[in-house]
Design brief:
Helices cover 83% and strands 0% of the residues. With 343 residues, the chain is mostly helical. The N and C termini lie far apart (80 Å).
Length: 343
Amino acid sequence: MPLAHSNRHGEYEAKNRLLLDRRTAKGSWQLMNQKSLKITTGAMVTAIFGVMLLLNRQTGNLLEEVFLYLYPIPMVAYAAMYGMKSGTAVFAAMSLLSLLFGNFTTIFYAVSQAFIGLIFGGCLYHRVDTIKTLFAVMLLSAVMNLLNTVVLGFLFGFDLNQEAAEMQTIMNSAFEQAGIALPEGLLSSDYLKQMIVISMIILGVIQGFIVYEVSLLILRRLRFPVSRLRPVFSYHPPKWTGYVALAAFFGYNSTLLRPMENTLLQQILMTAGIFGYVYLICFGFIAVLLLFKIHVPGKKIFGVLVGVLVLLLFPFLEMVMGLMYIVSSWHERMLEQVEKMGS
């Protein structure tokens, strides 16, 4: 009897070891499949990125402005699946491809857009708030747009001062021929440089918004679990950002009144001030939209038109509205009114 019991016990242990070995082998096989899938997916999105670079090169950069909005999408898809850490290797491979298939400007555009895609996809992977993700993408696009000017200046001799001077000459000549007298200083070199930089920032913000929307649209078509953008009114930035933006704006004005001897430091302060100005203007525009939502419900288009009109005619007023929207309780009071209207 003890011998039979010992045999049964040995058979039981053998079965357990066999079952454990099978489970271990199955787990190792699944882990290997996951790693293989990650590598295969990385190679696939890198190949898609390379095809876009090759098409752009074969068409003589004719479609570069279109590909500018498509370059981030492969990187967004991969980073959304596997995270920013895993996406770093794929980003390095995409950067290497851009060196092989692109010229100087294409390399900068492709690498910068892939980097935006890496950050964007990482935010999706970690379930970052959709509004914060949108603002991050728009901010990165604006910064890359400004850096593009620096890169062009370094490579091709693009000079902002010369560009402003040429624009000043052309506009003065046009207004003189039309017999229009403009206030003194409206077409000054400093003012035109400010307008050029602001236009670059606004263009970058718009570009970031388009990249965000197009990327999410394609990811939803590919059945990615992407959450929809919640209303922009529900987001309230930290109050300290409003004070920092205001301080940067005042620092920018001080550099205009008293130019600094250090040109690099002055350009940094000017860029930071313009960023602060645009930041406050954006939230001032949102405040105008929210006011129209409260007082003229159902007429969104009028709110957009009035916001643009105020921006063109009274930009300082919209900047002040943006500051109050951020640092005061005005945002909360307006949201309470919207909730009362809904109830």
